[in-house]
Amino acid sequence: MKNILEAPFLIEMVRTTTNMYAHGWDERNGGNISLLLSEEEVKDYLDPGTVLREISTGFEAPELEGKCFLVTGTGKYFKNVQYAPEVNLGLVKLTDGGKTAQLLWGFSDGGKFTSEFPAHMMSHATRLKVDPQNRVVMHCHPANLLAMTYVHDLDEKVFTRTLWQMCTECIVVFPDGVNVLPWMLCGTNEIGIATAEKMKTARLVVWAQHGIYGAGKDLDETFGLIETAEKAAEIYMKIAHLPLKNTISDEQMHLLEERFGVKARGGWLD
Ligand code: 2HA
Ligand code: ZN
Asked: How far apart are CA 92 and CA 71, in angstroms?
């Protein structure tokens, strides 16, 4: 067996958590990531038949039966992942219709997956139906997106249009827009179900007064998606209290759609 600490997926996960911490998106134990891995990717690094522990998930996800995920641990700090990946990360395989997670590697201090595991797994199940290439669900607490949920209308179309208007590239990066959930209790199956429902129509879901979820085909792309939305929110928070003199018009948005071959969410542009 090869050393799992040298696996490309593990190196990328360590780099991503470290980078997210450096961006200030994951204070203390804030944030969590899950990365779907193929059997092909893991087979050289561990034996899927060797189960260290079985952990009950508290939900069902039959669509994810037999699937392996590298996931951040509950109560663990993103800033520490790079120093002790085997303590702060775990690799699990879902069995029993998603009700049981078999721990194949990691969580070596007896820990377990993130408290937001339901939202992650339910979002994976939803996004895989929309896009079979989806591999990543990422949650974090970027300051400007969070700030925006205190002062901006939470209507999804209005919220998205504001973000699109803040940077030219936004509509190109997230033409499907941003969905928004009102404040809900985190860590529950209920917020998991609600998040997954919102993931049917967009890869970004804001949790008002809490943070954001992003989904994508790899860690880099998903990071970039959240990074772009957070940049737009930063511009908004810099200008919201000033008289607005200019913006990006819907006509200009249509030029971007044409130039970059994207289509904005139906009916969200005039
Ligand atoms: O894992 O971010 O939403 C800590 C959180 C909970
Ligand atoms: Zn959170």
From this structure: 8
How far away, in angstroms, is 82 Cα from ligand 1 center?
19
Pair (87, 199) in one structural domain: no
Residues 109 and 121 grouped into a single domain: no
Q: Are residues 74 and 141 in the same domain?
A: no
251 annotated active-site: no
Question: Which atom of ligand 1 lies closest to the CA of 72?
Answer: 1
Which residue range forms the structural domain that includes residue 177? 116-270
Average pLDDT over residues 99-120: 98
Question: CATH number of the domain that 9 lies in?
Answer: 3.40.225.10
Q: Give the DSSP H/E element, type plus range, for residue 56.
A: strand 53-56
CB atoms within 10 A of CB 111: 17
Of ligand 1's listed atoms, the one at least distance from the Cα of 115 is 1
- The pLDDT tens digits of the residues spanning 256-268 come to 999 999 999 999 9
Indicate yes or no: pTM above 0.85: yes
Our answer on whether the CB atom of 188 is closer than 6 Å to any ligand 1 atom is no
Q: Residues near 186 by Cβ (< 8 Å), separated by ≥ 6? A: 115, 116, 207, 210
Is 234 touching ligand 1 by the criterion CB < 6 Å?
Answer: no
Tell me if 32 CB under 6 Å of ligand 1.
yes
